[in-house]
What does this fold into?
Amino acid sequence: MVIVFVIHTVCPIGALAPGESRVLYSRIFGPDEALFQGGQRQLNAEERRLLSAEKLAVVARQVQSAVSLRREASGRPLVEALPGEEHLALQEADSGVLRLRCGDPYWQEVSALWLAVNSLSFVMLCEPHENLLLAEGTLRNLARHCLEHLHMLGQGSEVLLKSSRVDVLLSRLLPHGQLVFLNHRFAQSLEKDVAAYMNK
It folds into this structure.
């Protein structure tokens, strides 16, 4: 099962300091009790929200670091793709997996799959026994739909204003955090369904 889906920046923008990352969108699947331990379960709703935001910021920084290392090691200059070049941007995207140990930052071990497209990173935190190949395919599919239908590559494309549309994508492609095996016919039907909704 996928525990959390996150979209965050991987390059400094505006007032952000170098190496800093900003969480633009996050969605926790299922009860958040799985993310907290011991005394943390006694926190009120606002304290839980703040603690959850801190934990997501830790994950975003770890992914930011992994993306930076991958890009430096590749030696390729980062070429910002423009709107309309979503397919090319996805082909050039960096990706990877991080194993987050217990307590770093969640009480249970999780796998963080990430896909960095230009200055955005799409991240799924999965339970450690999850099928990572299926998770990677789902993450690429989600990122493709976000980029194509929500036009996230353009200047000033604010993810925060499109959160309800990202929610709809997640409900179709990752229902309740469950990874879904798609046959060809079902995948085509899903594509039409998503395209029809996004074109409204």
